[in-house]
Amino acid sequence: MSDKATLEIDGKKYEFPLVVGTEKEVAVDISSLRSTTDSVITLDPGYKNTGSCQSAITFLDGEKGVLRYRGYSIEELAEKADFLEVAFLLIFGELPTKEQLDKFHADIKSHSVVDEDIRKIVDAFPKSAHPMGVIASLTSALTAFNPSSVNVNSEEDMYKAIVKILGKFPVLVAWTFRKKHGLPLDYGDKNLGYVENILKMMFKQPNEDYVLNPVVINALGKLLILHADHEQNCSTSTVRIAGSSHVGLFASLSTGISALWGPLHGGANQAVLEMLEAINNDGGDTAKYMAKAKDKDDPFRLMGFGHRVYKNFDPRAKIIKKAADEVLSNLGVEDPILEIAKGLEKEALKDSYFVDRKLYPNVDFYSGIIYRAMGIPTDMFTVMFALGRLPGWISQWREMRLNKEPIGRPRQIYIGETLRPFKSIDKR
Ligand code: ACO
Questions:
Q1: Is 138 exposed, middle or buried (0-12, 13-18, 19+ CB in 10 A)?
Q2: Sheet holding 26-28, edge to edge
Q3: How many CA atoms are closer than 13 Å to the CA of 228, on its beta-carbon side?
Q4: How far apart are CA 325 and CA 425, in angstroms?
Q5: N-term to C-term CA, the chain
Q6: Best substitution site from 48, 292, 357 to test ligand 1's pocket, by max atoms within 8 Å of Cβ?
Q7: What is the average pLDDT across 219-248?
Q8: Which of 70, 197, 274, 286 has the smallest C-beta neighbourhood within 10 Å, fewest atoms?
Q9: Least confident stretch, 27-41, 153-167, 191-205, 323-337
Q10: Using CA atoms, how far apart are residues 272 and 274, in angstroms rounded to an integer?
Q11: 287-330, pLDDT tens digit by residue?
């Protein structure tokens, strides 16, 4: 293949270098387009064809349904690794040795105490607040309590910010959950693993011991790993672009949390469960909802189906589907919602509307069913996603800083009014 692409504008030819990734993906490097032409730019709403960076973190091939973190397949990581190992891998590039992992975990634990004044902020939120709004605000508030974490030119400071947020974020998640349910706010248990500690912090009742269930620990660990990174998606791009202004890690992360909240992104796990419940309450008629999803005059979409990048089975959905079966049978939960989900999946996979558009179940189609079996309320699902995505956002933010990427600043094609004279108010 040639190493250049040629573009002809108004009879004049311009050459641009091709950039080839390690998995043979090809991009046309148009960074000199505007300066070498007469201010011509590219236009790509939704960035469907735009690479915003070169990244060595996550590879995905949406056509083949492949997902790898730092070269390791998601299937192997979900089966063999634990969440903190995956977090280390994503952030620092290699699987940790036992010593590295122990130090990483010890550093996280030593920074897991949250300033008592943050309790006052938690208390100020109404119980009706959506947990994603609360958690985005609390993450942002951490900036005010940890001003030194904003030195983005110091690797040491970046490391400190990383272990701090990995330590404090689960506490904020647990506090958000407990406040909503009228439970006392508490700290974790330093003797527990990262995932075990999350469960205990969330679910421990004040008047009884918390008994950890290995099936639940395993399922939550798997879910967090599957959500840990997904290259330049909406929330991750938001984190990278916010961080490119040299704002600190916590402030960058809070923008990512807000972006994740939307139902077309991380909020889909909540939307899926609400949809399944609505179908169940409406008598379980999946065909009716399939018809609604296909009707162009109806805004209803089959939540948990389709993906901007996967035009094949989302590999994470396959793993989660199996995990959902295991968790439900181990916990002895019989959930009609799971049957509705299976029915919808079966119908959609043979329906030409979905087949032609390559709409397959995505990661969120089954995750809510597991969260529900674990006793996590629906409006906390996207927060659980954020808990898993945290190492991904951190690794992308760190990579962006280490690569010294320029400030993100897209351009536009202006289509508004041209110059016109001001009209005084009595003439409008
Ligand atoms: N139900 C019904 N039709 C759908 C669905 C769906 N879930 N998803 C896409 N389509 C249709 C669109 O109407 C469109 O049809 P058309 O070509 O006849 O106009 C076609 O499929 C392409 O859809 P787009 O919206 O253009 O695809 P895009 O790549 O922009 O969107 C998205 C991807 C946002 C995920 C979309 O599939 C969707 O809304 N899915 C439901 C929400 C969801 O599950 N989001 C979670 C994504 S995973 C994640 O973020 C972690």
A1: buried
A2: 4-9, 12-20, 26-28
A3: 32
A4: 66
A5: 60
A6: 357
A7: 96
A8: 274
A9: 323-337
A10: 5
A11: 999 999 999 999 999 998 998 888 888 899 889 888 888 888 88
Please give the pLDDT value at position 146.
80
Q: What is the mean pLDDT of residues 390-402?
A: 97
The pLDDT, as a whole number, for residue 417 is 98
Q: Establish whether 157 is a catalytic residue.
A: no
Write the CA distances from 113 to 124, 142, 187, 190, integer angstroms.
20, 12, 7, 11
From 265, 305, 349, 387, mutation site for ligand 1 pocket: most ligand atoms within 8 A of C-beta: 305
More confidently predicted of 329 and 262: 262
If you measure from the C-alpha of residue 304 to the centroid of ligand 1, how many angstroms do you get, rounded to a whole number?
9
| Nearest Cα to Cα of residue 308 among 49, 38, 29, 14 | 49
**405-423, pLDDT tens digit by residue?**
999 999 999 999 999 999 9
369 contacts 273 by C-beta, under 8 angstroms: yes
For residues 165 and 142, the answer to whether their CB atoms sit within 8 Å is: yes
